[in-house]
Amino acid sequence: MNLYLQTPEITVWQGHCLEVMQTLPDASVNLIVTDPPYHTTKKANIAGDKDFKTDEDYWEWLDIISQQWQRLLAPNGSLYCFASPKMAARVEVLLGKRFNILSSITWTKPNEPGYDGWKQKTKKESLRSWYLHSERIIFAEAALPDNPNQSPFGTLLRKTRLAAGMSTIELTGAMGEYGKVNHGGTVSNWETGRNIPTAEQYGKLKAVLKQVAPEVPGLPDYQQIIRPFFATADIPYTDIWDFPTVKHYPGKHPAEKPLEMMLHMIKVSSYPDDVVLDCFAGSGVVGQAAKMLGRRAVLIEISANLCDKIVKNMS
Questions:
Q1: Are 314 and 288 in contact (CB under 8 A)?
Q2: Shared-domain flag, residues 28 and 54
Q3: Using one digit for the tens of pLDDT, what is the confidence trace for 277-291?
Q4: What digits encode the pLDDT tens for the residues 155-173?
């Protein structure tokens, strides 16, 4: 384990991701964007891709890695984990033990003619299944250990409301947030994770609970507990993403992801100055995107040569 670079914006570690992550503090990461070995591609030029003799070996390893992700992710945190289409269903089930799964995103990779790689070369008549021309990205949020289907905010709100002796209807009414049909629906929806309060609504929520039950510990600040998600109509907001792959260039990482897609994930799912972790850093593109957006990045890469390239690109 070797610390390659440490600045206020970027920290680069060279070493095994598990060893490095074990040294990081609990709840110290706001967003995880990472691309583990796929295991199915068996590429010798991708670190870790041929390390597992059986599928079960791979699942056991990924489960151990995900334990660290769970420990490191803050209550307001999100996770984007890349997966091959063949393995994505199993990856989603595995991560569902520790995180609240929100989406399985399909990245379609709509390359320009002449840049379709093996798709262009494949003899279509010899196929016996649909050609794999997409990747999956499992999107999830932090969850409590005893309830992976519930966000920390929803659980904390219910606990605080009950300690204050209020029903969902009473709390909704006191805030002036009555719905047209279900008068308790606003707070109920927040507790179940169907939606989240705005910063203004959250301020009202804290004020009412403090006034009604000053002896009950108050809710934390908005950004400490509310998961950021800044989707708009003018950016990709569905679970189908059309980002072209990175064209070949000298020194390109074989699994390099497009910068535009990394910028999209980080901008939508983090606050300024948040900590973004990539424990399979590869080309370092997650760090580049984080730096461009005013976030702090922690990058872990096992290859010293790639760490050299990452540091060079960051300077």
A1: yes
A2: yes
A3: 999 999 999 999 999
A4: 999 999 999 999 999 999 9
